[in-house]
Amino acid sequence: MNPVGRRRPDWWRRVALIVAALALAFVVLAPLTSIDAAQQAGLPLLTDKLWFRIATTVAMFVALASGWNIIGGLTGYASFGNVAFFGLGAYTVGVLVTNRGWPFALALLVAPVIAALFALIIGLPLLRLRGHYFAVATLGVGVAVGEVVNNTSQLGASTGLFLPIVRSDLAFFYLMLGAAVVAVLTTWLILRTRFGYGLLAIRENEEAAAVIGVNTTFYKVAAFCIAAALTGLAGGIFAQWSSFINQENVFAISDNVQMILMAVVGGAGTVFGPVAGAIALELIIQTLAGGGSGAVYSQIGLGVLLAACVIFIPRGVIDFFGGRSRLSWRYLRQTLRETSA
Amino acid sequence: MSALLQVENLSAGYGMTPVLFEVDLDLSPGELVALIGANGAGKSTLLGALSGLVKISRGNVRFADRPVTGLRPEAIVANGLLHVPQGRRLFGSMTVERNLLLGAYRRHDRQVSEDLQRILGYFPALGDKLDREAATLSGGEQQMVAIGRGLMGRPKLLMIDEPSLGLAPNVVDRVMEVVKAINQDGTAVLLVEQDVVLALEIADRGYVLENGRIVMSGPASDLRRDPAIRKAYLGV
Amino acid sequence: MEIFTADPPRDERVSLLAVRDLSKRFGGVSALAGVTFAVDEGDVLGIIGPNGAGKTTLLNCISGLYRPDAGDIRWEAASISGMAPYRIARLGIGRTFQIVRPFPSMTVRENTAMGALFGQPDRRLQPGVALHEADDVLELVGLGEKRHYPVLRLTVPDRKRLEVARALAMRPRLLLLDEVMAGLNGVEVEQALQMVRQVRERGITIVLIEHVMKVIVGICNRALVLNFGRTLVEGPPADVLKDRRVIEAYLGQRYARDHG
pLDDT for A234-253, tens place per residue? Predict the structure, then answer.
């Protein structure tokens, strides 16, 4: 078996890339038709409220999945608590804007910093754990942070926080798109550097990485902080976009799991895998949720889909695009094992 | 009596990678046959194909006058063909005694505990270690347990894969003594060994596997003296 | 920096690596119970002994994967006992593992380059340069033509070569080899011995753990026998392998008989 990814025929790859480029161009430019100026000029309205809601959510999950990918996919430490960073970013913006009257833009700059600091504090002890233990410990932290927030009156407790409403579908879409681009770009940059190779080495065989000179502690913690920052940024944008945050919508365990699944189904360890996974999964979730009995069917449908993915496309969706995929479901299983063989 | 094990034109491999090509091999009851060859030649794959762990793509295998090609591993074990895999592969967190008894998992007769005593007779060193966790034993002791576990299944043929791997020279001696003793007591043995000298010293006959094909076979004494073998495997 | 005061080493030079009274326990079991020896630059030291004697534990302590419970390890008279593995690596100590530990998703070339990328004392390489250095090392160990193979395609002897290549790419001064010969047949052992000789010719000091006596006799200038976590005998291989205690504890009568 060739673990470095089979190569699909070139024409297929080119077609896929062209389609992807066109889709991206549409996504980036179409929203501009909703500007008053464009409307007055007679351009057809290509995007409506629903379009913006879905597109912004998709962009958000691209950022979240890519963020997770850095600690889970590249470094091999499958964190089950990244939603804590999302929530912390959201609440940072929420508190600074609502309680302190800060301008949103400024608050948004602080959000990733807070998230990264938190990652530094819990990362140092937690990253000593491996596999299942790390997964469970981070899950615990994710749940705990949400509970603490839910019980802290200065943070709005169970009532939540209300931010001043800012109506601009367009702005928030581009903002979230920006976060997604930053996340993907960060991943791409990491994989081109020495740092990236170090993370891969830690994933594949941490003891070997250590004895060839990789400062494993520093690298792991750094990856965790970067992932946290990206996740926190998305959380901060979400807070203002949604105008209302509480434990349920920013510390949701379902989001936690979703970002992991998206990264893994798409192709963990690659640059575009999480992108493909986030887009594919979120669109399916939105479609299923829309049809009739909504929630239940969407969950069942999702479950069936995931099972099919594990069986038929073990390297992730990215495999269809001839990507240089590293490993996927198998690796997730492997990384959840305690020790590297 | 006809051959205990008859392998005809066997080809096998892993997924898209073929490893064995047209292998012919046979073994009579009570024989000790050595299978030697370089790393990657396919020795472990051949044992795996015989015990049902590796898919056979062509050819057939008869054991004790019954066709066993393509049977599931449990069925092959039930026929009396047992495999002691490379690297010991014990159940580390279980006790030595449990590991041994698990070798008799498929047996429903009442002589299991008698057999356990008999087998401990081959490995006196294990006598006082029965309730230690298998993972805490030394390499040599683990190899003894692995072979003992195989014996607990009352095999007609025991296939042992590289028992000397990673063991100290004096421990290797003891393990080989045991293998010889088992054979003398009536169990046929197919022995895969990297240490060619060792293998040919205790075997009756030998087969040489190279790149998935049998390239030579004959009485062990002949093979020991063969110049091509001495050059290729002993570096002489 | 404290001067290492013990029995004066030969020639009054400071040994490259000095281990003194090293002890390591796991639960109630003493894996190392006070091991003492020194390695001088240019030595090829062979460590032998029964399974469980503490050989791999010793290597793990030296390379920093384990923290010793007692005793000291010194690299050129500075203590490295308990130092983080990556720092020990960058001092110039490379090692291989008994069961090889390659990076499965990388090619042979990338695996080797990792050693150059992270392990070279005083140099921080970029990936491009590291890959070039890897090519040289791969030629040395005989894997040049298989540079672009994925690791999973390699045979066992080749994987062991790769393990050595990755360590060599670190430009180490000391190389620790853990049972590199296990599972190799006569000819493969010869080839591996040749490779080890070439490593020594590059001026690298070597400490190797082996069960294959051919290697100890063939390339080591000194041998150390460990038994139950302690040093049993130390000296030139020829003497050590004839020692009655060693034959009893480790070699067995057959070896004694076959080698006079």
Answer: 999 999 999 999 999 999 98
The model's pLDDT over C186-204, given as tens digits with 9 standing for 90+, comes to: 788 888 999 999 999 999 9
For residue B12, list its beta bridge partners: B20, B56
Residue of A nearest to C110 (CA): A197
Q: Which residues of C touch B171 (CB under 8 A)?
A: 50-51, 252
Residue labelled with tokens 């470094």: A75
- What pTM did the predictor assign? 0.84
Number of domains, chain C: 1
Query: DSSP label at A28?
Result: H
Q: Can you tell me the distance from the alpha carbon of C59 to that of C17, in angstroms, rounded to the nearest whole number?
A: 12
Any idea what the CATH number is for the domain that residue B67 is in?
3.40.50.300
Which residues span the domain enclosing B162? Answer: 5-88+154-234
Q: Is residue C248 part of a domain?
A: yes
Nearest CA in chain B to C253: B170
Per residue in A109-142, pLDDT tens? 999 999 999 999 999 999 999 888 999 999 999 9
CATH of residue C154:
3.40.50.300
Answer yes or no: is B219 within a domain. yes
In single-letter form, the type of residue at position C117 comes to L
Angle at the Cα of C86 from the Cα atoms of C80 and C91, rounded to 5 degrees: 55
Classify residue C5: in a domain, yes or no.
no
C211–B38 CB contact, under 8 Å: no
Scanning every residue of chain C, which has its alpha carbon at the shortest distance from the alpha carbon of A341? C101
Residue C74 · residue C21 · CB < 8 Å:
no
Of residues B40, B162, B233, nearest to C187 (C-beta): B233
Domain that holds residue C52: 10-258
- Could you report the predicted ipTM of this complex, rounded to two decimals? 0.90
